[in-house]
Design a protein that fits this description.
With 770 residues, the chain is an alpha+beta fold. It has 30 helices and 9 strands. Helix 3 packs antiparallel against helix 7. One of its GO terms (biological process) is negative regulation of Ras protein signal transduction.
């Protein structure tokens, strides 16, 4: 009886599925013994370590990018408010550097509860999927940091990748369920769209962008003087400026301020624009071709998301045309993934820096991105009439573009393998994640907040774990935010000690099949570890077994004896036959050796490309750090310049960045307290609502002080009592943010205050009294 019954055991329909399982089973059997170190094993180990480093570094960059964004928004608010001097403390506190590596003390029981909780979150992605839809936009970034870079941080491990994509699928499905109309799908800046963008910023997405776009963009930037502006107003203005520079004056028939129509109708402007249009279309075409030719290197996960968008649209909107569906896929692939990298290549590490002198290439890149966007989406030219003249680019490429977007979706699903991966995870003893205390506490706090929506029933594992953990601890200060190695395991499923029994039960895999696979695996290992056998052809299995059994190395001897015994057993079971030199098994061993040989080359190639990615990510880290340094110095500069003067407008690049040693403003003493009566606050409209009984109001007063710049204390007092009844700490930045988000009320238990009026009061009271 030949060994072929193996693959057909699951019946014709399960055939593909079954082979997947076997390959997983074989790799498991092969992994059981790692004593034999050969070139392949060493290369694979190097590759694994490199992937782990990339994952860790990506997470650090994501955190740094958030800090840069955070400072960016604070600087803008402070400048608008001309109170730059007073926020120093807050920012300093936000950016204390984190000491890494020190362990934290967490008692064993608590550690175990977190281990169970995070195993549950990782292996049942639906919980996180629901959470992502429940949190608001201001919380999503912190959650995504934990999800993308910690919970599923190993971006090159198929199980984690597949679980993360499963989570995406439920988030997308829900987005389609609740969408009110087709046009708004996936467009708005929602938690889901932030999530998709963050996903594209993981290692694989970054390396794809670099390999496909970097060269194109760099060659464009080299032509610093190539001006391809096609907006008639700007072209007209540039034309006037150059005439003025040459002749020192302007002809009378060329007035300064004209309408877009007049500019567009001017023959000289038309002559300047015509060749530029041709050139833009050529460049856009070359970008498009590069992207289309690189389809095979688009990361699996990104293509899989495209596939989900397509199938969800078909299900929810059966009447949607292929054209409309492609515009949604294009909305994700171009709008969220490709175009941001074209418009800001420096942020995506595609170029070293974008020189300030490169304003023309910058504009060209923006125009290219617009063209690709108009091609990928339903064209929306209404915004800029002058883009209409690039319509031929869209018309000529629309069919090709849709073919490409559909081709992106043609990737296999992974559900078969995921089930197997989950088995493996249960049998592995060493699942773990590296997570900071604040990530633990923040995730716990978001889950607790939304527990009723996530787990209504008290028997649900998620509810049981969260209720045992109790209320989430508050966030720790940045400097105490330690990282811990958290082992992941489940309290409910016992790890499957003997995975073979599980597989046998599930797949009609017999003990004989496992014997066969194991024998094959040992033969392969022996041939690879005894150099004089590696070269010999044809392969003679009895000779291999004998050579090992009589070697000097005890491990080899043990295996040689074991495999001789296995060969004898397989013969008795009629699975192999000595008369044809064990042909079936020998052929499979030979095929496996060839495969492993190539595997080593693949591993080496992959390692090379990932080393480049790792270097890029580290360079980007350095770039972000220098940006933070600049921002810090910049803040200091703003504080000095804004102390008494009127601040500049809201953008960030307004004041030149001060050197790092800009002299620090002196620490001011506590200011205040200044006293205000309840009646006065009411009259000035500072109090919106009050619960203080009418007859008590004359006895109530407020003391307002500023213990340190940017921090304020409002205390509510009752005449004759020494201590305040109530105190409220306020940070100027938080007030500004509230005002910015349109939050108008500040609640103080007995009274509600008006945010804008409180800001005005603080500005007026503390701005000059230094």
């Amino acid at each position: 009886m030949s060994h072929h019954h193996l693959s057909s055991a699951a019946g014709p329909s399960g055939q593909h599925r079954s082979t997947n399982r076997y390959s997983a089973l074989q790799s498991l059997i092969a992994d059981q013994d790692t004593e034999i170190e050969d070139e392949l094993a060493r290369a694979q180990k190097r590759l694994r370590e490199l992937k782990a480093r990339i994952s860790a570094q990506s997470k650090k960059n994501f955190v740094l990018e958030r800090d840069v964004r955070y400072l960016d928004s604070r600087i803008a608010l402070l400048i608008q408010n001309r109170m730059a001097l007073d926020e120093r403390e807050e920012v300093k506190e936000h950016l204390e550097d984190v000491d890494e590596g020190e362990e934290t003390d967490m008692d064993e029981r608590r550690m175990q509860q977190y281990s169970n909780l995070f195993f549950l979150l990782q292996s049942e992605p639906r919980h996180i999927a629901s959470l992502c839809r429940l949190v608001n936009l201001s919380e999503i970034d912190t959650l995504l940091q934990t999800v993308m870079f910690t919970l599923y941080g190993n971006q090159y491990e198929s199980r984690e990748e597949h679980l993360l994509l499963t989570m995406f699928q439920s988030v997308l499905a829900a987005q389609f369920e609740t969408a009110t109309e087709f046009g708004s799908l996936l467009r708005a800046n929602t938690p889901v769209s932030r999530m998709m963008t963050t996903y594209t910023r993981r290692g694989p997405g970054q390396s794809y962008l670099k390999s496909v776009l970097a060269e194109r963009i760099n060659s464009l930037i080299e032509h610093k003087d190539l001006n391809l502006e096609i907006n008639p107003l700007k072209v007209y203005e540039q034309m006037l400026n150059s005439i003025q520079d040459e002749t020192g004056e302007l002809p009378e028939d060329l007035p300064r301020n004209v309408t877009p129509e007049v500019a567009a109708a001017h023959p000289d402007v038309q002559n300047i624009i015509a060749p530029r249009l041709t050139m833009l279309m050529e460049i856009a075409n070359s970008f498009l071709l590069t992207i289309m030719n690189g389809i095979e290197s688009v990361p699996y996960g990104i293509r899989w998301i495209c596939k989900q968008i397509r199938s969800l649209t078909r299900r929810k909107y059966p009447e949607a045309t292929d054209y409309a569906i492609c515009s949604l896929i294009g909305g994700f692939f171009f709008l969220r993934f490709i175009n941001p990298a074209i418009v800001t290549p420096q942020a995506y590490m595609l170029i070293d820096t974008l020189p300030a002198s490169a304003k023309h290439p910058r504009r060209t890149l923006t125009l290219i991105a617009k063209m690709l966007q108009n091609l990928a989406n339903k064209p929306s030219y209404a915004k800029e009439a002058y883009m209409m003249s690039l319509q031929p680019f869209v018309d000529n490429n629309k069919t090709r573009m849709n073919q490409f977007l559909n081709a992106l979706c043609e990737v296999p699903d992974f559900y078969d393998t995921l089930e197997m991966d989950q088995y493996m995870a249960l049998s592995k003893k060493d699942l773990q994640i590296n997570i900071t205390l604040n990530e633990l506490y923040n995730t716990q706090s978001l889950l607790s907040q939304h527990l009723d929506a996530l787990a209504r029933n008290e028997k649900q594992h998620l509810r049981i774990l969260l209720e045992e953990l109790g209320p989430p601890p508050p966030q720790v200060p940045r400097k105490d935010n330690r990282s811990i190695e958290l082992p992941l395991y489940s309290r409910w499923e016992m790890p499957i000690q003997d995975i073979t029994t599980a597989l046998m039960a599930e797949n009609n895999v017999t003990q004989n099949d496992i014997l066969y696979l194991e024998a094959k695996s040992i033969f392969v290992q022996l041939i690879r570890s005894i150099p004089r056998l590696a070269e010999r052809r044809p392969i003679q299995l009895p000779l291999v077994a004998e050579t090992a059994a009589t070697a000097k190395d005890a491990t080899l001897v043990r295996r040689g004896i074991k495999v001789k015994e296995m060969l004898r057993e397989l013969e008795e079971l009629k699975l192999v036959d000595r008369r044809d030199n064990f042909k079936l098994l020998t052929d499979e061993v030979a095929a496996e050796l060839v495969h492993l040989g190539n595997l080593r080359e693949k591993v080496v190639v992959e390692t090379r490309s990932l080393e480049a990615v790792y270097k890029t990510i580290c360079d980007h880290n350095a770039y972000l750090r220098s940006q933070l340094e600049q921002y810090k110095a910049y803040l200091q500069n703003v504080r000095q310049t804004s102390a008494g003067k009127k601040g500049t407008s809201g953008g960030v690049g307004v004041v030149s960045v001060a050197g790092k040693d800009a002299t620090k403003p002196k620490q001011t003493a506590v200011l205040g307290p200044y006293k205000f009566t309840h009646q006065q606050f009411e009259k000035d409209g500072i109090i919106i609502e009050t619960n203080v009984p009418e007859n008590r109001r004359p006895s109530i007063f407020f003391l307002v002080s500023s213990p340190s710049p940017g921090a304020f204390l409002i205390a509510l007092h009752y005449k004759g009592r020494e201590k305040a009844i109530l105190e409220m700490d306020l940070k100027i930045d938080d007030l500004l943010e509230k005002k910015n988000q349109g939050v108008e009320q500040l609640d103080m238990e007995y009274v509600s205050l008006n945010v804008s009026r409180v800001l005005a009061l603080l500005n007026k009271t503390f701005q000059r009294r230094k």
